[in-house]
Amino acid sequence: MKLPEVHPLRPQDFVSYELWIEKKDPFKVLVGTILSQNSTDKSAFKAFKSLEEKVGVTPQALVGAPLDRIEQALRVSGLYRSKAMRLKQISEILLQSFGGDLQKILVQDMEKARELLISMPGVGEKTADVVLLTCSNAPLFPVDTHIRRIAIRLGLANEKDTYSKISTKLMSILPRDSYLIVHLAMIQHGRTICKAVKPLCDRCPLSNCCEYARAQVGEPKESPATRRHRSSGAGKSKEGSVGN
User: Fold this and answer.
1) What is the C-alpha to C-alpha distance for residues 162 and 62, in angstroms, rounded to an integer?
2) Is 15 within 8 Å of 33 (Cβ atoms)?
3) pLDDT tens digits for 176-232?
4) In 3-state terms, what secondary structure has residue 160?
5) What is the CATH number of domain 11-135?
């Protein structure tokens, strides 16, 4: 059983993906992704709709609006003051350097586009990767807290591994055309089954290849050689695989 089969894609569960499907506007996807930081997607959706109604979600509208009006629109989201400031700053950068068009960044070489995004206030590796994967189908694999937890429990990563190391490892074992769908499925898996507290290992389709699940029933850990062999085929195996 594979995760995308266990968790069929529902765009409404993911603010960035839903906004891309609905709007096809990378700036709106960037805004939605920033609003989802330290917040649930449900709250991010509410904040986005409030911002759209009260201010407008364009660089021009955000630059022209008083900061307190943006803050008021975002009050339903966590850290709304800092997010309001960041959205205003990003909008100013886009207007000054790119004519207000985020697409002028996304059409550049992927590494350059990623570098430009990360240079903006409030945009880290995960946010940049979400925008590039969602809007440009770039060969990137964003790693959030759910995906990090799942990778560690499966034995594909260690607690001290960096964002980049976990992302690279997952890309190495998954088919290139599956990154987005598996990224979303892993998030949903972390939300519903592989939870931070009291994970539902007895319901998990990955329990047969999961070090954490093995430990819960007293089974020995896999040897490094066995783990390497298993992970090298994780995107292709018929049972217990992450990929599609």
Assistant:
1) 34
2) yes
3) 999 999 999 999 999 999 999 999 999 999 999 999 999 987 665 555 445 544 444
4) coil
5) 1.10.340.30
